Amino acid sequence: MLAIEERFVDVALASDGRFGPDPQAIYDRWDEFRDWARQAELPSGESVPHNELGPPVPRPRQVFAVALNYPEHAAEGGFTAPEEPLIFTKFPACLTGPVAEVKLPTPCVDFEVELVCVIGRRGDQVRESDAWDHIAGLTVGQDLSARDVQLRGPAPQYSLGKSFAGFGPTGPWVVTLDEPGVTAELELESILDGERMQHDTTASMIFSVPVLIAYISAICPVLPGDLIFTGTPSGVGFKRDPPRYLRPGDVLVSRIAGIGEITQRLTGGPAAGSE
Ligand code: ZN
Known about the structure:
Helix content is 16%, strand content 29%. The protein is of the alpha+beta class.
C-alpha cells in the first residue's frame, strides 16, 4: 500500500496490476514504482489502523545494524567512539509491523529507537557522495535487545540476542527522501510508559548514513529492500542505575520527527529480577 498523508492506496488495484500486492517486490522495481506513483492518478485512499499494518519491508534479504553509533551511547556503555562502523545483523524473521505486542523472552529486554534506511537500488562499493541515491526511504525501527543473551558468552551474540520473535518492529511506512520533513537532522526519541528515555538527533551519529553505506557496500553489496538499522542514542535501559528493562504491561513508543512513530506493548515473560 502507498500512504499519502495517512491515507492508504492499494497499489495493486491503483496500478491495474502493474505492481503486485507484495510490498517486498516493490523495492526491486523502486525507480519504476516511484516514477509511477509521482504521475499516477491515485484514488483518495482510505485510513487503516496502524495495528493492521505489517512491516513496510517484510522480507529483506539483508538487515544490517550498527552498534555504538552515537557518542553518548558509546560512552554510557563504557566504550570510546569506534574508529570504523561496527556491523551486525538482525535476522529478518524478527521483523514486525508498527503496532504489535512483543512477548518478553527474558527479564533483560532493552529498547533502542533507531532510524532505519531502506535500500532502493543495488550498490557495490558505493561512494559516499552517491549513497543517498541507493536509498528508497526511511522508517522507524526498534532494535529490541535481550542483553542477557547478547552479552553472556565470551564474545557477544549481538545478532541472536536481538532477533527474538517481534524484536524488529518497523514502520509505520517508508518515507521518501523528497518529503518536506526529511532532513539530515531528524529528532528521535523513545518513550516508555509516558517517560522519555532516549532523545537525540540523527546529526549526532558517529558514522552518517552515507559513510555506513560506503563502508558496508565495500564488503557486501546492498540490495533493494535491505534494511540498515543505523544505531541508537543514549538512554537505553541496561546502563541505567538501576537497570530499566522492559516489563509486561509496558508500552514503548518510538518516534522520529518527520517519519512517524511505532508502538509496542510488552507482554508475558518473566518479570525483571525474577529467575
Ligand atoms: Zn541498535
